[in-house]
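About this split. The held-out portion is used to measure sequence recovery: a designer receives only the structure tokens and must propose an amino acid at every position. Recovery is the fraction of positions where the proposal matches the reference. Here is one held-out target exactly as it appears in the evaluation file.
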């Protein structure tokens, strides 16, 4: 890569995108048989009519890899050219090794930095901003950002506040240099931890307050105060 690339014209942004969604579909009608809800109630409050569910053997990493390969093909970039892989996920198959390492290995991106990022719903925004900054520094020529979740594996199917919302899938973007006038113009990342207790997925530990909110259940499932989240 040209060490003087930042002196050239043009910005950095998305060159290609890819996705993967599981085949199994869970409709609102299906949920009516599981919890006390209706298709009309779900549509009015969320706009969701169906969600995808991973099959046996599918994982966060396997979906991330399929989405990444689709993005590489769309961008016309080979895996060995990728210098940075970021996987954004709140549901990794492992805490370590990183899902990004699984993707990097599968793509043959041997000389590549790779790490996971957990920023929940905003993960892809954070990932794109970090990747664009990395490219702008001149550290590499192409970067890959993948968002992948298997949220249904941490869903409490008896809790209608959450089970109607979440599904599984992956999306990916390859970033690189673009012509003058194109690319990411700027990024502004901020976080407010004041509402951090309104949506939780326990990891290795759980606070007494969170356990109380969950009615004593320490399951590794999503818990949410839907009314406060909406406000």
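Reference sequence for scoring:
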């Amino acid at each position: 890569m040209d060490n003087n690339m930042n002196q050239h014209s043009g910005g950095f942004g998305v060159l290609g995108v890819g996705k993967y969604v599981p085949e199994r579909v869970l409709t609102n009608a299906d949920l009516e048989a599981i919890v006390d809800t209706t298709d009309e109630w779900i549509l009015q409050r969320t706009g969701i009519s169906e969600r995808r569910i991973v099959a046996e053997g599918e994982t966060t990493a396997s979906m991330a890899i399929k989405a990444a390969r689709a993005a590489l093909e769309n961008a016309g970039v080979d895996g060995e050219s990728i210098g940075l892989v970021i996987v954004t996920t709140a549901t990794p198959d492992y805490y370590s090794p990183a899902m990004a390492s699984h993707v990097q290995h599968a793509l043959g991106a041997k000389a590549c930095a790779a790490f996971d990022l957990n920023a929940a719903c905003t993960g892809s925004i954070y990932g794109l901003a970090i990747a664009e900054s990395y490219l702008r520094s001149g550290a590499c020529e192409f970067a890959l950002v993948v968002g992948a979740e298997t949220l249904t594996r941490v869903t409490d199917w008896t809790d209608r506040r959450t089970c109607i919302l979440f599904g599984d899938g992956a999306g990916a973007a390859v970033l690189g240099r673009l012509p003058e006038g194109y690319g990411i113009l700027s990024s502004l990342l901020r976080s407010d931890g004041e509402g951090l207790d309104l949506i939780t997925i326990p990891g290795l530990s759980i606070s007494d307050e969170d356990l109380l909110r969950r009615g004593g259940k320490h399951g590794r499932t999503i818990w949410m105060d839907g009314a406060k989240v909406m406000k």
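Annotator remark: Residues 1-7 have pLDDT under 50 and may be disordered.
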